[in-house]
Design the sequence.
């Protein structure tokens, strides 16, 4: 039996083919660009996602006669708008876009901060979908008038595969239009914001079947295959790493960085610094803190300042990030008195500030590329450490930590996080993250397993464990104290910069 997980990510779409034992047989990723037409804006073309999906599916399905199930995951919060002919109206406004400050203020005034918290478990958030819908309504009224369907990124791919307008509870929660405790659309919020509920897709629990493949643009072995509702990328990553019970947490470093903890009850931070969503296990929740530009910080530096390393990686037939790790290792803890704030796309945890921007603090003529690389890795690690501490403050159990995502493939970065957190950090044998979790959800929806928990116990295998070094933890703590003091000093200056 074969199952496929599809991850509609920010930098590319990945397809993973697994069997009933959890073994990965094939993976394929197709990349695409992100557009930033203005400072703080971020958009993508849904047609790029679909083309990448078709190519990825063709690659993993070659020579396969039968697929038993497909699961979907992807970047959360993106706004896809379709017209009466189901054509895309405008480029998708994606999760890291920060244009919606006025709309957040409008939501707070219209709904009320207390009511937003009690229903959606968060204050008005610039990255969430509701504010993006209001931005189109306020700034592109003709486009809003044409809109007949609103979808999230992975759910656009579902529509292209099945013709169904559907989403799942974990991804729907990130739209800020959902009653998180009752796992359904909130009529009260929708009415207050004057958003017609008929525009929104049907909500399913993550392992439920949401439709069957009808598209003739994908391999024939996929026709009629059930498609699981799936999950947002972090909820799917939790399934892919076995974080499906209390006390378990993970750190993922993709384009963004996340610290995620499973909870049996909906825990809510009254200050809105961390997020509470329904998770991929039916009837359960999770809490998470988000660093907007985690892997993105390193990718930005690679793309703009590491041409030589990229060329050398191609010559050596190795990953350029391996070479960047080796260079960063030559700089000491503290990067020779250089501190990086990873706010390239604003920040969510703990600052909730869309206007924050990245900083190298302490830059001098002595600093080298190695120092800047080390500072980036440390700055992102400190931001994730902020998330860990806030989850604990909210009451979440964080006694068992796993790492995943692209950054989790780096032993150097994983050990750094273990030292910063002062806790053991585990890996899993399969490093495919959200796509692997989506494939596991597909196996449950297809009937191979009764529950998400039983599927995870049967399919997920452990990997390496990183043990914290007490001396290095102490050295990082000194730098972390300086790191924490920088944002309060710069907050008002960010407003002036804007």
Sequence:
């Amino acid at each position: 039996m074969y199952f496929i997980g599809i991850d509609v990510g920010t930098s590319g779409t990945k397809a993973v083919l697994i069997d009933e034992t959890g073994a990965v047989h094939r993976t394929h990723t197709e990349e695409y660009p992100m557009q930033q037409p203005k400072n703080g804006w971020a958009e993508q073309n849904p047609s790029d996602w679909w083309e990448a999906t078709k190519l990825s599916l063709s690659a993993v399905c070659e020579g396969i006669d039968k697929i038993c199930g497909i699961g979907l995951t992807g970047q959360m919060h993106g706004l896809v708008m379709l017209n009466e002919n189901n054509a895309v109206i405008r480029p998708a406004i994606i999760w890291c876009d920060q244009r919606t400050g006025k709309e957040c203020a409008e939501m707070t005034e219209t709904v009320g901060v207390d009511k937003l918290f009690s229903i959606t478990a968060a204050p008005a958030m610039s990255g969430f979908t509701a504010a993006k819908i209001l931005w189109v309504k306020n700034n592109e009224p003709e486009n809003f008038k044409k809109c007949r369907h609103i979808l999230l990124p992975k759910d656009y791919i579902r529509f292209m595969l099945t013709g169904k307008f559907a989403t799942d509870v974990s991804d729907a929660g990130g739209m800020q239009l959902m009653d998180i405790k009752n796992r359904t659309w909130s009529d009260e919020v929708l009415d207050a914001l004057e958003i017609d509920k008929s525009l929104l897709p049907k909500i399913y629990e993550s392992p439920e079947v949401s439709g069957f493949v009808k598209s003739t643009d994908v391999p024939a072995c996929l026709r009629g295959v059930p498609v699981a509702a799936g999950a947002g990328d972090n909820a799917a990553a939790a399934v892919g790493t076995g974080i499906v019970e209390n006390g378990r947490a993970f750190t993922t470093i993709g384009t963004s960085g996340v610290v995620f903890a499973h909870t049996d009850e909906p825990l809510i931070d009254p200050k809105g610094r961390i997020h509470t969503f329904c998770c991929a296990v039916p009837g359960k929740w999770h809490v998470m803190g988000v660093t907007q530009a985690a892997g993105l910080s390193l990718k930005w530096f690679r793309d703009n300042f590491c041409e030589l390393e990229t060329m050398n990686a191609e010559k050596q037939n190795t990953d350029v990030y391996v070479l960047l790790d080796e260079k960063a290792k030559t700089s000491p803890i503290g990067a020779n008195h250089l501190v990086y704030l990873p706010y390239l796309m604003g920040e969510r945890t703990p600052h909730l500030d869309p206007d924050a921007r990245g900083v190298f603090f302490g830059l001098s003529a002595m600093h080298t590329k190695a120092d800047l690389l080390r500072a980036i890795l440390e700055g992102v690690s400190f931001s994730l450490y902020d998330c860990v501490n806030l989850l604990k403050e909210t009451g979440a159990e964080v006694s068992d930590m796993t790492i995943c995502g692209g950054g989790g493939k780096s032993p150097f970065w994983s050990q750094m996080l273990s030292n910063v957190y002062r806790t053991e950090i585990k890996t899993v044998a399969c490093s495919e993250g959200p796509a692997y979790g989506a494939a596991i959800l597909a196996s449950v929806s297809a009937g191979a397993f009764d529950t998400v928990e039983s599927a995870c116990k049967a399919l997920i295998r452990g990997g390496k464990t990183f043990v914290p070094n007490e001396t290095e933890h102490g050295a990082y703590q000194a730098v972390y104290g300086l790191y924490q003091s920088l944002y309060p000093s710069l907050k008002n200056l960010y407003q002036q910069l804007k």
